[in-house]
Each structure stands twice: as structure tokens, then as C-alpha cells.
């Protein structure tokens, strides 16, 4: 109850601050407005409840330069996935030793460029990637990503990333043979993970790898627990303290008094609740069928930053400032000439019956994986602009 009171208070303050910005500046829609103070509080909260871990902000969640600069000043490290993200961090106050090249699918020339820039921490999950690292990042610290269960995640991760723990043990042995530094193991239990128990099994797998590699005289020193901590969408979620407690308990259970270095890579949980997308109603129509649902078309859709509505996985809260009263069921869709650009058709959403074309709607907790997912110009619609305040 304390958490939800705190969360509601923070979100109210965020809404008030963002509402004032929108009223005073009247930016073109769709746009994303991000409250930097909310991100700062989220970072401080995570550090308070999980002091055992070093924070590497997942830049892909929201790569706004203002966010990176603010987090760099607060001491955050950064999980980067490309040369552009590396440059972004270095240009905004981070130093190379605070970067982890966490993408397991890298061009060799990008590895070489990162190494030349001073980056010395790299992820991999295959022998071919390891060979690239050996050639272009000699002596670097490397960690292997393993496959784990993503059950319970609203945005689960596929088998695209990671390998079995058994293969990871062999690859980390190969890393030593290649002259690299076998530093640790990483995993990701899925984004917007709602099952706090998922970290226990993943940490158990990592701990077994530590033991097996110790028998081969390889001393792993780091566990990267990835991301997965949530933002606040339509469903209630546990507080950060509960997630931190579950992670700490798992580490203690499986490593005892010899807990290694721990890395956490938050993205959604730091920036998600800090953002609001303001959109405009473009059209409201009745299909003449028996569904009883109006179709409400917004100027923000799957290709304008709301890609995570794919399969209706992430269910954002939607508000209609200035429009109250009776509501009715709706299908919510985006503006483009693509039939896939439907946000919510199966999930029940209700909007005011008095809603009109031209009204503004606010899509809440959209600070993560929105602006960075927006297309460059599908159908000629420009990328959604971000304002950091």
C-alpha cells in the first residue's frame, strides 16, 4: 500500500508538470514528454534497494541525450548496443570504462571501433562472436549470455539471444584459450517481468556455471542479471523493493557468502513511468457491425512509437483530459495505411462517449521503448519528437 501511495503521488506530480508543459507550449502531436525528475528518483530508488548491483542503464529504452547526461552525472554506467549508442554516451559524460557492449550480435568493425574508443566489456553467446572479439578486442573482459525462462513477462524475450548454460561453459573456456578474460555470465528473464521468482532459477544456473568453470581453473567474477523490472501500466506491479529483495535472496541462496560482482541493466523501470505521449484523435467511426465498438483512430500508432502494443502485450493507461462522463467500448488504432496498425482490439478499453475528433489523449507511462521504436517516416509521418523537462 505504501508503494502504491508513493507511486500515485509521483505520477500525479509528473502529470501536473507535464500537463503544464503541454498547456504552455502546445507541441505538435504525437509527442513524448519525459520528466527527468521521475527518472532521477527511479534511479535513486533502485540504488537504495539494490546497492549490491552496479547500474548499467539500457540506452535502447530511451536514448534521449538529456536522459543519458543526467544519469551519467548521477554515476550510472550504460549498456550499449551499437557505435551510435557508444558515441551518445561518450558525448554526454560517460567514460569508456562505464560502458558495456551488451549486444551479442555485433559487426567486427564495430567491436574494433568500440575497443579503440576504450570499451573493454563485451557480451557474446556464440563461438563465432567470440572469435570476432578475440581478433578485434584482445584481452577484453567478456561475459556469456545464457537462455533462461521468460515466463511471467509481458514482453518475453525469444531464443534469439543466449545459449544453453552447458554451451556457455565451453565458450568461456574457449574465451580463455583466445586470450580474452572470461569475466562472467548474463541472462534476461524478460521485459516487464511480473513473476519475482524468475530470478531464482536464472541465478541458480549462473551459480552452477561458476562452480563448473572453477573446476577448469576459470574464476568468473560477475553476474549480469539483465533487466525485467517493470513500469506501471494497467496492471498492478510489485514495488522495486520487492524485486530487489527477490534478486538479493536468489544471489544469497545460490552463492552464499561469495556473491560476485552484480550488474543490473534497467531500462523500462527507470524511464517508463517518466513519459507521457500526447496524441490527437484523428477519426471516430462505426463499422456498422454487431461489435458495439467505436473505432478511435489516433495520430500515434505502432509505427509512431507504440510498437509494444504488438499482440497487445503492453497495455498502456489512456487518459482523456477534459472528457469525462459515460464511456463505451472502443477499438484503438493508429493513423497509417497498414492493417497491422491496430493498438487494442481484443483488450477491453473504454473511452468517453463524448470524445470528439481533435481531442487530445494522453498515453501514460510511455517513457520506454516508444521514441526509440518510432519509424523514420512510414507513410510520410515524421518520427515522434521527444521533450525532456
Keywords:
single chain, 389 residues, alpha/beta, TIM Barrel, Lyase, Ornithine Decarboxylase, Chain A, domain 1, 2 domains, eight-stranded mixed β-sheet, 10 helices, 18 strands, 32% helix, elongated, disordered N terminus
Give a description of the structure.
The protein is α/β, with parallel strands linked by helices and about 400 residues long. The protein has 2 domains: about 35-270, Alanine racemase (TIM Barrel), CATH 3.20.20; about 275-389, Lyase, Ornithine Decarboxylase, Chain A, domain 1 (Beta Barrel), CATH 2.40.37.10. It contains 10 helices and 18 strands. It has helices spanning about 1-25, 35-50, 65-75, 85-90, 110-115, 125-135, 165-175, 200-215, 240-255, 270, and strands at about 30-35, 55-60, 75-80, 100, 120-125, 140-145, 155, 180-185, 190-195, 220-225, 260-265, 275-285, 295-300, 320, 325-335, 340-350, 360-365, 385-389. Strands 1, 12, 13, 14, 15, 16, 17 and 18 form an 8-stranded mixed sheet that branches. Helix 9 (about 240-255) links the parallel strand 10 and strand 11 (about 260-265). Helix 7 packs across helix 8 (about 200-215). Residues about 1-15 have low confidence and may be disordered.
Amino acid at each position: 500500500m505504501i508503494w502504491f501511495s508513493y507511486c500515485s503521488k509521483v505520477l500525479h506530480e509528473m502529470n501536473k508538470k507535464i500537463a503544464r508543459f503541454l498547456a504552455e507550449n502546445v507541441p505538435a502531436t504525437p509527442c513524448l514528454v519525459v520528466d527527468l525528475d521521475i527518472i532521477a528518483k527511479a534511479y535513486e530508488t533502485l540504488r537504495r534497494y539494490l546497492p549490491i548491483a552496479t547500474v548499467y542503464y539500457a540506452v535502447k529504452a530511451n536514448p534521449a541525450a538529456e536522459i543519458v547526461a543526467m544519469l551519467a552525472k548521477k554515476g550510472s554506467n550504460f549498456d550499449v548496443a551499437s557505435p551510435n549508442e557508444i558515441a551518445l554516451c561518450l558525448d554526454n559524460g560517460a567514460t569508456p570504462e562505464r560502458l558495456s557492449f551488451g549486444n551479442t550480435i555485433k559487426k567486427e568493425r564495430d567491436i574494433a571501433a568500440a575497443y579503440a574508443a576504450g570499451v573493454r566489456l563485451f557480451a557474446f553467446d556464440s563461438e563465432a562472436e567470440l572469435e570476432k572479439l578475440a581478433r578485434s578486442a584482445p584481452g577484453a573482459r567478456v561475459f556469456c549470455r545464457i537462455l533462461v525462462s521468460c515466463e511471467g513477462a509481458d514482453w518475453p524475450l525469444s531464443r534469439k539471444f543466449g545459449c544453453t548454460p552447458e554451451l556457455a561453459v565451453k565458450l568461456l573456456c574457449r574465451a580463455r584459450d583466445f586470450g580474452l578474460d572470461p569475466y562472467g555470465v548474463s541472462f534476461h528473464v524478460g521485459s516487464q517481468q511480473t513473476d519475482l521468482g524468475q530470478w531464482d532459477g536464472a541465478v541458480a544456473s549462473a551459480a552452477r556455471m561458476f562452480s563448473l568453470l572453477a573446476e577448469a581453473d576459470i574464476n568468473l567474477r560477475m553476474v549480469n542479471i539483465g533487466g525485467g523490472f517493470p513500469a506501471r501500466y494497467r496492471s498492478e506491479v510489485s514495488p522495486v523493493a520487492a524485486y530487489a529483495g527477490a534478486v538479493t535472496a536468489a544471489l544469497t541462496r545460490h552463492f552464499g557468502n561469495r556473491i560476485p560482482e552484480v550488474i543490473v541493466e534497467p531500462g523500462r523501470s527507470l524511464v517508463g513511468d517518466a513519459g507521457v505521449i500526447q496524441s490527437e484523435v484523428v477519426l471516430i467511426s462505426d463499422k456498422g457491425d454487431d461489435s458495439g465498438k467505436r473505432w478511435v483512430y489516433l495520430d500515434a500508432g505502432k509505427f509512431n512509437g507504440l510498437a509494444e502494443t504488438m499482440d497487445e502485450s503492453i497495455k498502456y493507461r489512456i487518459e482523456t483530459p477534459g472528457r469525462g462522463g459515460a464511456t463505451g467500448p472502443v477499438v484503438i488504432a493508429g493513423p497509417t495505411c497498414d492493417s497491422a496498425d491496430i493498438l487494442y482490439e481484443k483488450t477491453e478499453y473504454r473511452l468517453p462517449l463524448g470524445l470528439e475528433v481533435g481531442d487530445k489523449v494522453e498515453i501514460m507511462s510511455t517513457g520506454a521503448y516508444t521514441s526509440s521504436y518510432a519509424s523514420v517516416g512510414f507513410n510520410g509521418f515524421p518520427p515522434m519528437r521527444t521533450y525532456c523537462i
